[in-house]
Amino acid sequence: MKAELALLCAVLALASLALGPVDLAALWARDPELARNLFIELRLPRTGLALLIGAGLGASGAAAQALFRNPLASPDVLGPSSGAALGAVLAGYFLGAGVIGMAIGGLAGAGLSLLLLLALAGRGAGATRLVLAGVAVSMLLGVAINLALSLAPSPFALYDLMFWLMGSLNDRSLPQLALAAPLILIGIVLLLRAAPALDTLALGEEVAQSLGVGLSAVQARVVLAIALATGAGVAVAGSIGFIGLIVPHLVRPFVGHRPGAAIAPSALAGAALLSAADIAVRLLPAGLDLRLGVLTALIGAPFFLCLIMERR
Amino acid sequence: MLEAIDLARPPMLAPTSLTLHPGQLTGVIGPNGAGKTTLLKALAGLSRGLGTVRLDGQPFLPHPQRLAWLPANRDAVWPIPAAALVQLGLGPAAAPDPTAIAAALAACDATALADRPVSQLSTGERARVLLARALVARPAWLLLDEPIANLDPGHRLDVMALLAAEAARGAGVVLALHDLDLARRCDRLLLVADGAVVSDGPPATALASALLAQHFGVRRDNHDWKRTVNTLFISDDGPPRSPGPADGQRSEPD
Fold first, then answer.
1. pLDDT at residue B245, rounded to an integer
2. Of B220, B245, B249, nearest to B232 (Cα)?
3. Does pTM surpass 0.95?
4. Smaller CB count within 10 Å for chain A: N or C?
């Protein structure tokens, strides 16, 4: 299954490199320099970011569901996504930072929200306390984002702000890729290494401990990894919902429903799904400017509903 | 040898020191809320800071082959096939061992359930699969919280025989149970009441009528528990498989 998903990612990556409003092959004949620049500065980072952010969201979703032993958990419940959004908004619209400044602000926001989460949950918190603290942090940050929106310096800023929050990969370039890629990759690697412990956690926290799983260490590592993988994504691309929630459900039947074993294929499936959505957004007729985050939610919500109906 | 030194968690568990021996079937009985689970969990090394647990003279470190803990909670979140769930009992990232898994499932009469998702099993079936999970790594110590609750009378007898066989192979088996008739099959019986071990010795000691009357509020000549087994047409030589109507009545989990 992993091989098929990897192949799908490769095909989608090639399609993402080839497709867009400008026909690069035709442009190459007329202006090779411009075509080359377009390819390296826009198409390549966009394709890379779609793959990486999708992989980070998929893996984080699978890990969050495994850690909290709840199929409805998503990486958003912990708060780093909201923290990243708030950080980027504050940096961009109140400090006047550019796109790179917004990304750095987003990363700082994700990090601070993680610290807030850990401080609220306290040492040695179980999954329940952690998820409650996460919900509290998310709500607090959501309110703070609304406050930032209502204090926007001008109507145009408000419009930009809301648009940015909907999530998009338009016009993202190499610096954003360079900033986000290492953090997302570290997050994914940490999650993959936690996979066997997360499988064992299917037996419950006490039993996992009795089998030699260092529970607090695993929790701390997984929470940090989710913050890295999702926070870095939101910092450069805005909020992209539903991928972290849905992808693990798609993948789990193929790995015998083992929650930890679902992490690696969820990363691949998340990468494929976000790449496909980003290609779809680009192929929509001009004038219909559907944001990537809106599209994933448009596909995701009904799909999730079907999943629930089917399992009744 | 599993030594517990000064385990204490007031008010659930008064200071308790115990030495448990391998090769013995030790039962823990007592009314609901008496502290059986607290005691077992502490013995399993799951309650940090409540005292000292030593295994063969060493501080206890969890390992699948050292000690298995079976909680009374039989919930299953994920629809993992039973055989894959039993595999998890070998420890995180352990190599698959189909022989051990098949043997553990067979010992618990759960071979037919191997491919069924555990979340779709009945509570009693799931209890057998989870017991197989605890047995699969052949641990030196088995600490089981009400392993026979939810089981039909035939499977109760089977599981008691299985645990006796585990003790005979040298494992130390400690189980909490409510079925006082089956408790008599233990080598040693701890009676727990109000967070303290009030009787410790051969079954006859703990099951003495004065103690039972004091701590369970039942008189030995007027109890239901003897009927639980005897009136359900159960005899030791030929356990029938039909679940009795009173199944579980005397063994509701805490």
1. 45
2. B245
3. no
4. C
